[in-house]
Design goal:
Layout lengths: L4 H26 L15 H6 L8 E3 L5 H6 L4 H8 L16 E3 L4 E3 L6 H15 L6 E6 L6 H12 L4 E7 L2 E2 L2 E2 H4 L16 E5 L3 H16 L5 E6 L14 H11 L1 H11 L5 H24 L15
Parallel strand pairs: 1-3, 1-4, 4-5, 5-9, 8-9
Antiparallel strand pairs: 2-3, 6-7
Bound molecules: thiamine diphosphate.
The site of thiamine diphosphate has 17 residues, from strand 4 and strand 6.
């Protein structure tokens, strides 16, 4: 697929932003500064960075528990994100949601919920609403491979296929569900085969390469927008951290995975070879990224805590 130099640079900037924010999130969580629990997408950044560029702002994104990268990729407000991570009043959800509930309809993004597998049916619902309201929106839904063993995954694919809903389901296949390998919990070898059961297309892409993700997404999003119905993308990747700040892989496994699959390292190398980047630009972009995230962290840290009264707002509708 022909991708312009301009778009490659945009993808690269998004990769850097996600990486920097997620690294800082894990660091501050480990220091005990962030309340609650965090589930980062470190190592998986190519998926949000690549996929987001195939979407329009009116499209809807729904994710599983590793959603902050998608929120950033959608152009979510970084200051509000960090205020949310700090549990502050001016966070995305007034500090009540935390990392697993980054719901912001200003950017049509429901970045997460803590119920593994709920994402699939929520995304299907978003596609249903789009079709019902005759909006030309596509719903893009993301989740881990273990969650495809839940009934919700198959209910969502069946309903979306039956009603020809504009939904693209993407599995962020990192090979592990918490500490177990995927083949310990899943019989089928190629998860894209699961699409066959619902008579929809299922394809694989390289989840460590944002351009591979972008190409798969562009094709399937277009299909959905044309009224041809849902599809399944499996993006193979490598996660650095499991639950919160815990690394479950052995050090040797982790080092090997990072050296082979790190999407930021791989994409930097590729764009340097293509002369889209040079060393000076890499330094400049890295410095800008760290300034932007630094300012967002400062904003979050200095934001006020909710009051006791706020516990009673936005609870019932
Ligand atoms: C319904 C439900 N069951 C169990 C859990 C506990 N849990 C949190 S993350 C996780 C593993 C999910 O694995 P996968 O879907 O592959 O995503 P990954 O964490 O690897 O990105 C589990 C079992 C949960 N949050 N919700």
């Amino acid at each position: 697929m022909n991708i312009s130099a301009e778009l490659k640079l945009e993808i690269y900037k998004t990769l850097l932003l996600i990486r920097e924010s997620e690294l800082k999130m894990v660091m501050l969580y480990k220091k005990g500064e962030l309340p609650g629990h965090v589930l980062p997408c470190l190592g998986q950044e190519a998926i949000p960075a690549g996929f987001s560029k195939a979407l329009r702002s009116e499209d809807i994104v729904v994710t599983g528990h590793r959603g902050a990268g998608h929120y950033i990729a959608r152009g979510g407000d970084l200051k509000k994100l960090w205020a949310e991570l700090y549990g502050r009043k001016n966070g995305i959800l007034g500090g009540k949601g935390g990392q697993m509930h980054l719901v912001d309809m200003n950017v049509n993004t429901i970045a997460g919920n803590a119920i593994v597998g709920a994402n699939w049916v929520l995304g299907c619902g978003a596609g249903f609403a789009a079709k019902q309201n005759k909006e030309n929106q596509v719903a893009a839904v993301f989740g881990g491979e273990a969650s495809t063993n839940r009934g919700t995954f198959h209910e969502a694919l069946n309903m979306a296929a039956l009603k020809k809903l504009p939904v693209v389901f993407t599995v962020e296949f990192n090979g592990k569900q918490l500490w177990d390998n995927n083949d310990y919990v899943t019989a089928v070898k190629d998860l894209a085969d699961r699409a066959k059961a619902h008579d929809i297309p299922g394809i694989n892409c390289d989840g460590n390469d944002p351009e591979s993700v972008y190409a798969a997404a562009a094709e399937m999003v277009q299909r959905a927008r044309n009224g041809q119905g849902p599809s399944l993308i499996v993006a193979k990747t490598f996660k650095w951290i499991d639950s919160g700040a815990n690394q479950r892989q052995t050090d040797a496994e982790m080092e090997e995975g990072k050296s082979k699959y790190d999407p930021v390292k791989l994409y930097t190398k590729k764009l340097l070879e293509e002369a889209i980047l040079d060393e000076k630009l890499v330094k400049e972009l890295t410095r800008n990224t760290s300034e932007i995230i630094g300012q967002a962290i400062e904003f979050g840290f200095n934001s006020p805590l909710p009051s006791a009264k706020d516990a009673y707002t936005n609870v019932y509708v």
